[in-house]
């Protein structure tokens, strides 16, 4: 095996990306050097942050170059190893990108560890998004029993974990999602209130749902949802800013008055904590506790999760474009190749 089939960034999108932003092509793989492994991709994770990597501007990570393989987390099988602690047949979590095969340093991958859960969960509830939920809540949200927590994109990988962890911590939880199917699932998994942000009366329904105000707003989307949440933040409310998916395709400032003075005044007067984070910053302080607690919560059925599995690498661009429009229902993963049979 010295070839990989890959999805590369064909051009940088302005605004909403389309299929023309991607190209499927076959590429040569480098020869395996000492300390390296040859990987076969089983599952590829599709995540909102990838939209940012398509832009030229640097955020907290470098952009993907035009003509380079799109980056992404994978669950992969080791096919060949020149690395002491990895052997053919091992399943690993890697950052192998949108491709069928990859050569990587053994130090850049780690063995899958999900207990009795399916291996794909290493990219979702027991992987990066689940960890972002756990760590953002622990470090910044600090939700207390009896408090009210609100989260949007609540049927997604991060939001569903946020709501369920907050409920385990004793909070009252309000989940926001797009459409009746997602809203119904939120109620099934134990959110106290579930709201549809596409409902024309959404802002009023949110006001009714939080009579005592909001103590923690876990920010995943921004935009109109933030506008509806903002007036209800209590004194000393915490806002972990995890992501702002409603803004990822925007090219101009929103219409209407400048909201910044009102935001800064509220931060001052209500003594709000509004803190951005990326899960990577919190690995050292929270990863061990996450693995222990989340693995047992999932095994005990106290944290439910949903996966939206798309078959075939060639369908990754379409699925990713759908994610940015809210078409995924649960953690979006692409099955690039079969799981090994025992
Ligand atoms: P999801 O699986 O939740 O998928 C994205 C969802 O966002 C869509 O399904 C849709 O849900 C919602 N959405 C899309 N556009 C809009 C919009 N305009 N307004 C409101 N909702 C919208 O994704 P993840 O759980 O993986 O990610 C959620 C957030 O967390 C993202 O902002 C992401 O960037 C961020 N993130 C940050 C990390 C960090 O380290 N800081 C790590 C991982 C994720 P619906 O149909 O319900 O509206």
List the helices and strands and how they pair.
Elements: E1 3-9, E2 22-28, E3 36-45, H1 49-53, E4 74-81, E5 91-94, E6 101-105, E7 110-111, H2 128-141, E8 148-152, H3 157-168, E9 172-177, H4 180-188, E10 193-196, H5 202-209, E11 214-218, H6 223-229, E12 233-241, H7 260-269, E13 273-276, H8 283-299, E14 307-311, H9 316-323, E15 331-335
Parallel strand pairs: 8-9, 8-11, 9-10, 11-12, 12-13, 14-15
Antiparallel strand pairs: 1-2, 3-4, 3-6, 3-15, 4-5, 5-7
Helix pairs in contact: 2-3, 2-8
The chain binds NADPH dihydro-nicotinamide-adenine-dinucleotide phosphate.
Residues 47-49, 129, 132, 152-153, 155-159, 177-178, 182, 197, 220-221, 223, 225, 242-246, 277-279, 323, 326, 328, 331-332 line the site of NADPH dihydro-nicotinamide-adenine-dinucleotide phosphate (NDP).
In short:
The chain is 26% helix and 25% strand. The protein has nine helices and 15 strands. Strands 3, 4, 5, 6, 7, 14 and 15 form a seven-stranded mixed sheet that branches. A six-stranded parallel sheet has the order 10-9-8-11-12-13, sandwiched between helices.
């Amino acid at each position: 095996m010295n070839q990989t089939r890959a999805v590369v960034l064909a051009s940088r999108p302005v605004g909403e990306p389309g299929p023309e932003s991607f190209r499927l092509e076959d590429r040569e793989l480098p020869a395996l050097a000492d300390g390296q492994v040859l990987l076969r991709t089983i599952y590829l994770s599709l995540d909102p942050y990838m939209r940012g990597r398509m832009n030229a501007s640097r955020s907290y990570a470098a952009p993907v170059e035009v003509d380079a393989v799109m980056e992404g987390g994978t669950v992969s099988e080791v096919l060949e190893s020149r690395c002491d602690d990895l052997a053919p047949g091992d399943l690993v979590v890697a950052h192998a990108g949108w491709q069928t095969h990859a050569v990587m340093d053994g130090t850049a991958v780690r063995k899958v560890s999900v207990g009795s859960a399916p291996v794909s969960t290493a990219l979702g509830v027991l992987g990066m998004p689940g960890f972002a939920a756990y760590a953002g809540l622990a470090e910044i949200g600090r939700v207390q029993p009896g408090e009210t927590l609100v989260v949007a994109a609540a049927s997604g990988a991060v939001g569903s974990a946020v709501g369920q962890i907050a409920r385990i911590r004793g909070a009252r939880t309000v989940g926001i999602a797009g459409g009746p199917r997602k809203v119904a699932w939120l109620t099934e998994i134990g959110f106290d209130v579930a709201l549809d942000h596409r409902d024309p009366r959404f802002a009023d329904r949110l006001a009714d749902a939080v009579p005592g105000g909001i103590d923690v707003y876990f920010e995943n989307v921004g935009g109109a949802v933030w506008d509806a949440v903002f007036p209800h933040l209590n004194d000393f409310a915490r806002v972990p800013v995890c992501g702002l998916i409603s803004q990822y395709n925007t090219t101009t400032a929103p219409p209407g008055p400048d909201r910044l003075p009102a935001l800064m005044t509220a931060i001052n007067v209500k003594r709000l904590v509004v803190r951005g984070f990326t899960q990577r910053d919190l690995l050292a302080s929270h990863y061990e506790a996450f693995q222990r607690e989340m693995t047992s919560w999932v095994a005990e059925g106290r944290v439910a999760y949903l996966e939206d599995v798309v078959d075939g690498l060639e369908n990754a661009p379409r699925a990713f474009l759908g994610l940015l429009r809210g078409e995924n229902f649960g953690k979006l993963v692409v099955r690039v190749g079969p799981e090994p049979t025992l």
